[in-house]
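Example: Organic cation transporter protein.
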Amino acid sequence: MEKYLEDVGEFGQFQIQNFILLSLPTIVVAMQKYAWVFLGAKVKHRCQLPWEEVNANYSLPVEELELYFPRDRNTDNGFSQCTIFKEVKKNWNSSLEIESCSNFIYDRSEYESSAVIDYNLVCGRSWMRSTVQSLFMVGTLFGSNFFGHLSDRFLLGATLQGIFLIAYVIMMEMVGKTKRVVVGILAHAFYSIAFFTGALIAYLVTSWRWLQVAYTLPAILFIPYYWIISESARWLSAKGKSEEAKNILKKVAQTNGKKVSEESLEMAIQVPEGEKGGNFFDLFRYKSLRLKTCIFFIGCGAVEIPGLLFSLYIIEKVGRKLPLCGMMCTGGVALLIGLFLDKNSIEVAILSYIGKMCISGSYAIIYTFTAESFPTVVRNVAVGSSSMVASVGGALATYVNLLGDFWPPLPYIIFGLSSFLSGVLCLMLKETKGNPMDDLIQEKIQSSRGEENRGYGKENSA
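Written out as structure tokens, the predicted fold is:
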């Protein structure tokens, strides 16, 4: 297959067209993933005083705040957002009983409407705000694994959930080995486009309910993909669907303006007998795949344009393993260093940007690394299952943030150490730079053994 792609074009017109079409839905998927940032925006609030209307002004003079609200050093203005004195404080030294409140006044200077405001998802109900995002991530957990299998049977476009991992695998399998890195990194650039697009839409649409509609409606445009997008020729040939694979490969050559012989087509779709498919359990059945699977699971669970561009440059020069390790470790260290600095300082802001850049870059690398490390028959399952574990991390992350209410540094320690340790684990993986993508599990096992034997031979000769 690699030789055929070299002959007809590793990234010709056919691949470019499909790359653009497959990448566009990523914008919609990414906007949904980060929608809760705007839909459930955290809003400044305080208890509603007995005589106040619901739409009362949030701001109060310090003198009034002293009379009605206990001090709280963890808030921006120094007064409690969730409790109130039972009686009016008559002097500075008096000690009064406090009580929790169920009605709140919100600061609407930044957000006129929010799910947090409409449903009072603050104070004792703040866990509900975290649960909403966690439920979304749990949905992607099942979607990543389920649609990883579903993509083996249906063409892209029938559904939105899980579309990125399906599109990513198809993109990686339709280009030659010298172009895989470019395609893999550029595919993640559409996530960055979604950040800008989503923020612009949120600025223009002030109602959080209509904002959700605006984020979701474009998905309808991708329904025709069911008839437009071609299935992966690699997967078809690995499944023994030779005629369908040949038709796709002919279409690639024709679109790229190349002529190929029947003999070249036959050689491209030729696969050894005895292995026609793979499943989730194959990732753990073989030792050489089991270690990679476990490490990629951890790496995915622990994790923007500068990071992507740097990744594109460094993995072409150095490879996949060392840059992935370096970026994840650097991101983790940046979080840990921030513990010792003033949270409002410029140094913390710089460290945050460095950490974000590194994690974004590592996120792009790990998708390319995962796709190259597994054979075609289980590639969808491997990428989907790794993405599933990443969703577990995403679901837990919102609750980890809540631990900051008990001890503010704790979330930073957990996230920082997770990222750093995941980077170290990546050193146990084998480099894939310049290697052809295997189609069958036995091919991957044999190539892994060959690499081990070559390494052993070098050691002996030394």
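The beta strands are 45-47, 83-85, 98-100, 104-106.
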